[in-house]
Design a protein that fits this description.
Layout (H helix, E strand, L loop, with lengths): L16 H11 L4 E3 L12 H21 L4 E5 L6 H13 L5 E5 L1 E2 L2 E2 L6 H10 L2 E5 L14 H20 L2 H4 L5 E3 L6 H14 L1 H4 L15 E3 L5 H11 L4 E2 L15 H4 L5 H16 L8
Parallel strand pairs: 1-2, 2-3, 3-6, 6-7, 7-8, 8-9
Antiparallel strand pairs: 4-5
Helix pairs in contact: 2-3, 3-4
């Protein structure tokens, strides 16, 4: 519910580790990365209130991971509208709860991810070795897209491109070269528009390159994308674009826009097994800074 308004019906696989293990066993998923549903980010709330809900969500997630540490990895959530509280909770996620990193939204209220207020959080993430998984939420233009599920079909891909461009042009990858960042849904519309983005960099550097003089194409392969593109031609394209070592299996489980048979698209590609293995687990292990032996 959102207030007194019905939003979405969810099943127990949204919160039950046992239900998730059962589904994982059915689909041959050996390890699943758990993160908060984006509608529960609570960036709109007061910082201290969002800290309270973040701690509640993170404690629950840590308990699910602890119940089956060979099958689950945790990514926490942060009250990013208050960067100092966010750093406090990030430190707890990494040093106390043992998470691999955190999941964040594609923007934080009126801040894009290049906002100077957020830089100390990314700086802390690099220092702590925390990976960052960026998921679109609160889609731009949603008030103009009331029909046809367009916020999810059009707005979400645009949100991911917004996040990637904000981090590139804001100089985050340049200033924090060890920061590990992954973007959901194959990077959204970014891969399909990198030519336009690069062209803009060349023809209007006064607007595009004012904070970072480096060609945006130079950052391809410096961040991860997930494989959730639902199309073999697009999967081939993004692996060619950023390298198969930087594409990791994404499922969007347990929601209908996800891959209903996790890994099926990758397995059906006409690729050598080693390349498939990168997408099925090797890329994710590098992003999470985990070893295969951690789960054996």
């Amino acid at each position: 519910m959102q207030g007194d308004k019905f939003f979405r019906k969810v099943e127990e696989n949204c919160w039950s580790g046992t239900a998730r293990i059962n589904d994982c066993n059915t689909h041959g998923v050996h390890v699943q990365v758990l993160s908060t549903i984006p509608v529960l980010f609570h960036y709109w709330a007061k910082g201290e209130h969002a800290l309270e809900t973040s701690r509640f969500l993170n404690d629950h997630l840590a308990g699910v991971v602890a119940s089956n540490p060979k099958r689950f990895v945790g990514l926490g959530t942060l009250p990013l509208q208050d960067p100092q509280l966010a750093i406090q909770e990030l430190e707890r996620c990494m040093l106390t709860l043992g998470f691999a990193g955190v999941e964040i939204g594609s923007h934080i209220n009126d801040w894009n991810l290049n906002a100077p207020e957020l830089f100390p959080v990314f700086e802390a993430a690099e220092r702590l070795g925390a990976c960052i998984f960026v998921h679109p939420w609160d889609m731009m233009g949603k008030e103009k897209m009331t029909d046809y599920w367009l916020p999810w079909l059009v707005g979400m891909p645009a949100e991911s491109s917004l996040a990637i461009c904000a981090m590139i042009f804001g100089g985050l990858f340049e200033r924090l070269p060890k920061l590990r960042v992954a973007f959901a849904h194959g990077g959204g519309s970014f891969p399909a528009t990198i030519g336009r983005i690069e062209h803009g960099f060349h023809v209007r550097p006064d607007l595009v390159a004012k904070h970072n003089p480096v060609n945006p194409r130079a950052y391809l392969g410096k961040f991860w994308l997930d494989s959730l593109v639902h199309d073999p031609l697009m999967l081939q394209y993004i692996t060619d674009l950023v390298g198969h070592e930087k594409v990791a299996l994404g499922t969007d489980y347990p929601f209908p826009l996800g891959e209903l048979e996790p890994g099926k698209l990758i397995q059906n590609m006409d690729w050598p097994q080693d390349k498939k293995d990168w997408l099925l687990h090797k890329s994710a292990l590098e992003f999470l800074q985990r070893k295969k032996t951690d789960f054996l």
